[in-house]
Amino acid sequence: MFLVFSLSSCELLSEELNECINKISPKLPKKTLRQGQVGVAYMETIDAFIKNADDDAFGYKFELRSKLPDGLSFKSDGRVFIISGTPLSPGTIEFQVRVELIDAISGVGDGFCFAKDYDREKYKIKILEAP
C-alpha cells in the first residue's frame, strides 16, 4: 500500500502541525506602568503579541475589565492598548486588560490546536498628587 499526498496537502498539514506544536495564542506582557500625576497629560501603551507566530496574521480585540483612574481612557490600535488622558485625582488603581484574537488566519481545523484564543493581565497605575 502506498500513501500519496499532494504538495498543497502536505504544506497545509505542515502548517497545522506547526500551529499545534507551538500552541499559538495571544499574550499580554507583565509590565509595570509608569506613574502619572494629577493635572499632567499621561500616555502608556501595552503591546499584545502572539506566542510562536507572526503578530501581523491576526486581529486583536481588547476589553478593559475594570475602570481606569479618573481622567484616563483607553483605545486600541492594532495590537496596542493605549491609555491616555489627564488624571484628575491621586491614588493607585488596579485594572485588568483582556485581549482576544479575531479574524485569525488559520489552516485546516481550528488552527489553534486548543490553545487559548485570549489572554488577560492585571496592571496598576499610581497617580501622584499635583506638586
Mean pLDDT: 80
Ranges where pLDDT stays below 50 over 5 or more residues in a row are: 1-13, 106-112
What is the number of beta strands? 9
- Helices and strands, in N-to-C order? HEEEEEEEEE
- Radius of gyration, whole Å: 20 Å
Please work out how many helical segments DSSP would assign: 1
Main sheet, how many strands, which sense, barrel? 4 strands, mixed
Strand content bin? 35-45%
Helix content: 10-25%
Question: Looking across the biggest beta sheet, what order are the strands in?
Answer: 2-9-8-5
Judging from the principal axes of the Cα atoms, what is the shape? elongated
Category from helices, strands and their pairing: mainly beta
Distance between the termini: 82 Å
List keywords for this structure.
mainly beta; 131 residues; 3-stranded antiparallel sheet; single chain; 4-stranded mixed sheet; disordered N terminus; 1 helix
Report what the structure shows.
The protein is mainly beta. The chain is built from one helix and nine strands, in the order αβββββββββ. The strands form three sheets. The protein has a four-stranded mixed beta sheet, with no helix packed on it. A three-stranded antiparallel beta sheet has the order 3-7-6, with no helix packed on it. Strands 1-4 form a two-stranded antiparallel ribbon. A hairpin with a 2-residue loop joins strand 6 and strand 7.
